[in-house]
Every structure is written in structure tokens, then in C-alpha cells.
Amino acid sequence: MSVDVGSRALLADGDVVLVRPLHPADTAEVLGLHTRLTQQDTYFRFFGARPSRLDDLAAQIAGDPGPGHYAVGCYLRSDLLGVANYEVLENSTDAEVALVVDAAARTQGVATLLMEHLVSHARKTGLKRFVAEVLAENAKIIHVFADLGLRFEASVEGPEREVVMILEEDATYLDAVLKRDSVADAASLAHVLKPASIALIGAGRRPGSVGHAVLANLLAAGYPGHVEVVNPHAGEILGVPSVASVAELSRTPELAVVCLPAAAAADAVEACGERGVRAVLVISSGLTGTPAGTRVREAVGRYGMRLVGPNCLGVVSTDPVCPLNLTFLAGPVKPGNVGVVTQSGGVGIALAESLNDLGLGLSSLVSTGDKYDVSGNDLLMWWTADRRTELAVLYLESFGNPRKFSRLARQLARTRPVLAVRSGSGDTAQRAAASHTAAAATPAVTRDALFEQAGIIAVDTVAELVDVIAGLSWQLLPGGPRVAVVSNAGGAGVLAADACEREGLVMAELSADTRERLAKLLPPEAAVRNPVDTTAAVPAELFADALRAVLADDGVDAVIAATVPTAVGDPGTSLAAVLPPEYKTVFAVRPGQRARVAPLVPGTGVTACYDDPAAAAAVLARLVRYEQWLNRPETAGSLTPLEDPEALRAFAAGREGWLPPADAVELLRLADIPMVETTYVEAGDSMDAAAAGLGSPVVLKADAEGLLHKSAGGGVLLNVHTDSLRDAFRTLRSRFGSALRGVTVQPMAEPGREVLVGVRSDPVFGPLVVFGLGGVDTDLIADHAARPAPLTGADADLLLDGLRSAKALWSGPLDRVAVRELLLKVSRLAELVPELAELDLNPVRVSSESCVALDVRARFERPALTDPFLRRLRD
After folding, report:
1. The pTM is what?
2. What is the DSSP string of 714-762?
């Protein structure tokens, strides 16, 4: 049996601690903690039990009490700071909880961190409540319990307070945990982005070396703190004192930067840990998958350090209080408001250079490389507190904790734009195809659904990323999707209009007043309907007046102004006098300009000017979708509560593999998901009573080994009348032989549209709800939309409207409300039953009055008992 070695986690001041279960071997340490406490500290009482002391807990631990007891300790390096434990009440889902913390560590959130780990473990074992009795004068512990974010009750009279905490996870608790996590994480990253002192290990005298370049960049950035170099072959480098080893540094640096070969890098990280360094930046490559890489990981855990890298570009911060450039970028970094986290050093270099060229700049850049510790989630939490960062950019090749990422990104995107570059979108990604749902829920689809739900603006290339950054930096978000195009070149205007429609934008209908005003301003041959063609003969001033008239139209949310210079004049030069309007978004287009995107007027932020109408339209469409996401209400889905959710959980417990057809139907019944009346007949049983009560005609569906898609595989017989039932059964037996396990019999369903609803649970991303066109052509048509569970009501609506065919689908008399409710019920099933790996309702028949599943396949897996929101650092 493996031993749980615990998890690294952060205290409120950024200290890295180890939280782990306590074992009999820890008894002496628990008693040692006891000796450091006062009488009031040691006295705590289990709710409904006799008074107890910490030495009683030590005795329990020494006796290895078994599954009804659980104790966890918090260690700072080798010192035990606190203990929390629970004891399950007999024949109950309640547990008595107790907590004690060393007096010297009580202001750093030790008690809260221990309770969070206790709550997480208790939930996995099926516990529902924590109960305790606390002395009335021990107000601090009562506040710890109350502030956890759990539903909390406490008595108000008497010398002791009876406390009850409900362990059910909800948004309030998750928000409280993430808020504490963000505070602690930002404090720990300050050692990386705002260190008071830095040591560069491996900075060489040779200008062409990486270490030398990093040191030169740090000095050029104007870093104000103490700097030393570790290099046994030099007394100073670039005027900075150098010593032979980490042990010989004049002071313990807050941050150490390692630029050494792999084996030497591991030695350096271990030496930093022994010296008490708080964080290390390992630029060195070649560590991952080697013994040296293992040593680095172990040293970081053993000494409680934060680590950026290895195999990375480095770190940049342009905070004027503590500017630093610990990278090997070729030139200086312009200060700005764009924060970047990237796993690719090349993407970081390209983006930094592009932003410099645009006159924009960085607030911070962290290259995570092989991502041993610091990840994108850490930077999302850092930027939440960093008001200098007004726009966040992510390039992530993998997700360590996507559910936490989604919640963090969604919180940040509510206050400032978050952009991401998609990676790994190709068809080479492996995927399961055991059902239509699985075929639709590829890794790329799952990632895109995660981005969309979190409000992340996703792009496919660095060039597109720079386009969007420019648009966001120099213009307001559009007030809606209605776009007008104004051009002095008819062809450019038509191209812009075509691009807008391809991107899903709405070409605005100009009002009669606007058209009349334009007609008076422009030559007779001008086009005054959208797209507006002023003709090439108009001077710049007249073009500006036409643009003002269009901007004044209440039916216009945004404008693309496409101009080319002529012998008469250059209308592009007049745009700066018109822009920026206080309430409308305007992008300029200058076909043929050298840069893909540039400021309209160099050195200003008037607006972004693109070299192609398609680029401007693509940026505008992304901004419109982000604005719509910001204004979308996050309402929960309204469902009647399940009559017996515990019966559903009990049904799922311990199951693995594909459910037999009868069990799959029972699953839907327990989940209150509508399905057509179904009878299952074993292959060796008689068909005589199969259609009793179902009427005639009926449908027969084969349940045969290896038959995944029944219709395509000849496993469905339609319009079978009662007198032909035996013959139909014999037909299926002849087709499938010994592979036939049985047959389902259903009444013929009412006519309607066939759709697919399903769940695909990913071990990393969690459950994904899929909606699309159903029936035999599901995979051929491939019109699907997906959203991570749990779904809100708004999420369900977006799924319904997310198909390419959505406009045509809902134009007929279909019961949209019933389909929406079905999506919410399927999402609830995925939440309540984590064992559900795959659910395929295909087809679901939708008519004007109903929505009912005609077929179901369900697969179960033993779920990994991980808590994505438990506060802990990467292993």
C-alpha cells in the first residue's frame, strides 16, 4: 500500500509548507507540539464527546486508528506547525473535528489550510458534515471555521459553542478557497518578480553565453536590489562581484538564477535550498527525464522553494519599483500593460519583439519551460492582484489543472481581457471513438470549450495574437455586433463587408437620416448604404465628415474605415481627427501598408490600423464575442431537484465498463432524463411478452458484442408489427449469431428532429457536455457544440445556439425548452456521478411538444479521487 507523502502548499506570507497525513511515526512530533502550547491551546473538545487533549490525539495516531479517523499535519521544513483531525461518528456521515496550531504560526493561515485539506479528504470518503465544540473564549478558532466558506452554524449561548459545517461543495466555498490561494500565491511569486536580492549562478565572462546575456539584461533593466554572481573562475563579471560557490555569497539571495549544464544545475539548486533561497529560476535545459531533473524536483520540495523552469527563456518585470530582465532576449523590454506566461521561449521572444515594434510593452513575462512548479495558474493569480497588468496572454501546451484554470481565468476575464494561443489542434491528437459523443469531444474541442466558457479570447497564431492585442489596447470594446464599413475604394469596402459576414458580424442597416446626410456630403456616384463607398475622388476632410455621420447612427456599434491614398488626397490622414469616438469602436484598414498592424498615427494609441480588411474583421469579431460574454448573466439552470440523488449515486458505485442496455435505461430513470419506454429481451428468452403494452408497430435494436453504432451496423429494425416480432428477432439472430446478447423493444417514436446529447469525461479536463445533430449522419455532418460541466442556464443556451445549423434548427416548431432542460439534467448527472466516463444519447427525438431519448449508451470508469481546487503546488 502506497504512503501518502502529502502536498506542498502555500501559507498567506508565501512560505512553502508540506501538508501530509500523520502516521504512527509522527507521534513524538505531535507530543512535541503539545509541549509548546498553553493550557487553553491544548484544551479542545469533540462535539458530543468527552473533553480531549492533544495527547489523546497523539495516542490515536500512535495506534493507527483506521478509516474512521484521519489526521493531517502542516510542516515548515521539518517543523510541525499544526494538526487537524476528524473522527467519524458511529453509523453516521458526520465527523467530529479538532484543530490546533502553534501560537507562533497563527497569523499565516495554517489553521485554514489544514481545514481545507481535512474537508477535501472527508468529502472523498462520503462524509457530509463536520461538528465540533469550541470554548466560547476561543473566538479565533470559531472565526477559522466560519470563514472557510462552508455553510456554517454555531450556537450563541453557554461556555461552549456547538459548531456544524456542511461539507457540500458550492461556489461560495470554491471562491473563498481561490481567494486565499491567490493571496498566498502572489506572496510567493513576489520572490520571483519582486526579489530584494538576486544571485546569478553560471554567469560567464564570455559575451556570447546565456548567463552573461542574462546578467547584462538585468543590469540594463536598472534592477535596484543586491546582485552577486557565482562563478569560480572570475572575481567580477560586468562589474558585479563573483564568488566561487553559493555558500560563499555575502548574503542569502531571495532569488537565484541558474544557467549551468544539467548536472551542475541540480547541484546548484540543492545548494540554494541549503542556503535558504526562497525561489530559483532555472534557465538550464536537458534536465527533464534525467536523474538531475529528479534531484531538482526533490530539492524544491525538500527546501520549500518556488521554481520557474527549467528549460525556459526567463522572467521579466517592468514594475518601476523593481524592474528586472532575467532573460536572454536580444534587446530591452518596453514597459507596458501586457502580462505574458508562455511555455515556449520562442513564442515569448516573438511576442516581446512584436510588442516593442508596436510601441506597446510588457508588465511581466514568465517563461515556464518544462513547468516543474510555476505554471499558468500561478500567473493568473498574480495578475488578479497586479493592477499594472491590463491584458493577460497565455501560451500553454498543457494543462496541469484545467478545472482550476477555468475558474481562475473566468475571474480574471471579468476584469480584463485574457488571450490564449491555441496549440495542439491538429487531427493527430488521439481520441476515443467508442461513441458519437467521444468522436465529437476531441482534446481540441475540449480545450476550445474550456476557453469559451472562461471568456478567453483564443487565436491560432502569434500574428493573430498581436492583432488582437493592438485592437484591445487602442480601442473600446464594441457595444454590439452591428458593423458599418466606410471606404474610399469600393473593392476594399466589399472585401471588408465579406470578411465581417464570414466572422459572424452583422452588417448594420444605416438609418434614412444617415443615408440622407451622406447623400448630401458625397458625390452622386457614391454608395450611401452599408458598405459606404465615398468614391476615390473625395478629399480627406470630406471622408472624415462621412465617417462622423456613420458613427452618429444609433444602429451602428463599430466601424471599419478602409482607405487608400490617391492623387486627390489620403483620407487615412484625416481619421486621427475623428477618432477616437467616446462610444464607438473604429478600426482602420490601409491595404498595402508594410506592417500587418500598426498604430494609425505612430507614437499614439488612436486606433489600430490593419493591412487587410479580413484581419480587422477577425479582431472585431473576437472583441464582440468577449463583450457579449462579459454581459452574459451567469444564472444557474433551474431544475426540479432529483427525488433521490443518493439512489443515483448508489446505482453508480463500483460500476465499470459499458452498462448493459437495461441498466443504462435505469440510469436515465434515476437521473430524471426522459427516454422512450423500453423493454429488454435476453437473446435466449421468448419475444412473446416483449411488446405487451407498447402497441404496434415497434422498433427492435440489437445488443451485440462489437456493435457500436446500431443503425450503421444493421442492428435496427423499424416498423415491426406484433405479428412479425418473432421473424424480426430471428433476423437479428441470423445477422449477429452468437454475438447477439439481447434485443431492446420500443414503440415507434413520433416524427421529429434527431439530435445528440452526451457526456465525455476527460481525466484532466473533467466532464464535457456535447450537443449536436443526431441520427445516423452524426459523425458525417459533424455539427457539434460542447461545454464543460457544470452548465449554467446561459451555457445551455449557448450550446443550443452553437451549431452551424442552429438558425435552421430552431426556426421550426421544436420544443427548445425541453432540450435545454435535457442538457441541464445531463450536466447534473455528470456532476453527481463522477464515475460516468461516457454518455451517448443518440438519437434524441425532438418534436413541437416533447424531447425524448431513443437510445442510450453509458460507460463507467473508476474516477481518480482528486480535488482540483485543493490548495497545493505541482508535485
Report:
1. 0.89
2. T-EEEEE-GGGHHHHHHHHHHHHGGGEEEEEEEEPPPS-EEEEEEEEEE
